[in-house]
Amino acid sequence: MIYSLNGKFIYGEQNFIVIECGGVGYKCLATMNTIKSMPRIGENVMVYTHMIVKEDSVELCGFRTKEEMNTFRILTSVSGVGAKVAVAILSELTPEQFALAVSNGDVKALTKASGVGNKLAQRIILELKDKVKKLSILPEAMPTGNVSSNITGGNISQAIGALAVLGYTPDEVMPFMSGVTGDMTVEQIISSTLRAIGRKG
Questions:
Q1: Is the CA virtual torsion 19, 17, 50, 129 positive or negative?
Q2: What is the homologous superfamily of the domain 4-63 according to CATH?
Q3: Largest Cα–Cα distance in the chain?
Q4: Which residues does 95 contact at the CB level (< 8 Å), separation at least 6?
Q5: CATH code for residues 82-130
Q6: How far apart are CA 129 and CA 41, in angstroms?
Q7: Which pLDDT tens digit goes with each residue over 125-155?
Q8: Crossing angle (nearest 10°) for helices 153-165 and 186-200
Q9: Tens digits of residue pLDDT in 67-117
Q10: Is 0.85 topped by the overall pTM?
Q11: Burial class (CB in 10 A: 0-12, 13-18, 19+), 200
Q12: Which of 56, 102, 151, 188 is in the most buried spot, having the most CB atoms within 10 Å?
């Protein structure tokens, strides 16, 4: 399993990038968010990867952040969602926006992606939203810890519900919410928490 690539960015198109490591160019299926974050041609870059092994092929997918890689893996666990559909969704939505869309049951946000119709969007929400339901997240039951008292319980609850879509339990995310402030939106809380988790990892 190839976990990451660290080398020169030598080429990119609409749905893939090529990273050269040790004289070998690795073609990686990539989201538009990852492609847009690439440096200039010839400059060094590190991407996280996910390898897809089929009977007749081996394909690498490249991601600029761990959050995007993890969201891709969660997406492809849904029946009917292959690598190309997952990449299409993550080209339209960041991991934070995707988690929020699933948590809110926002079918319209998911159908913006190429190849995603109403039925598939509803299936994604149904299968992944179950993670939130199983955690029984209730605002009054939320631990406060070091989280700013200026943040409404609703915002915290919604953010933690969205993070649950990405596989994080409330106990796991609460220690990383110390940087949350009163003027932050739900999406900003999610983004801040994911960055804090990434620094810890």
A1: positive
A2: Nucleic acid-binding proteins (2.40.50.140)
A3: 56
A4: 65, 67, 68, 70, 71, 166, 194
A5: 1.10.150.20
A6: 40
A7: 999 887 655 544 434 334 445 555 445 567 8
A8: 60
A9: 899 899 999 999 889 999 999 999 999 998 998 899 889 999 999 999 999
A10: no
A11: exposed
A12: 102
* Six-digit token string for 63: 């991601």
Q: Cα torsion at 189, 190, 196, 199 (round to 10°)?
A: -150
Residue 158, SS3 per DSSP: helix
The whole-angstrom separation of Cα 98 and Cα 33 is 13
Contact 176, 168 (CB under 8 A): no
CA–chain centroid gap for 6, Å, is 21
Separation of alpha carbons 87 and 64, rounded Å: 13
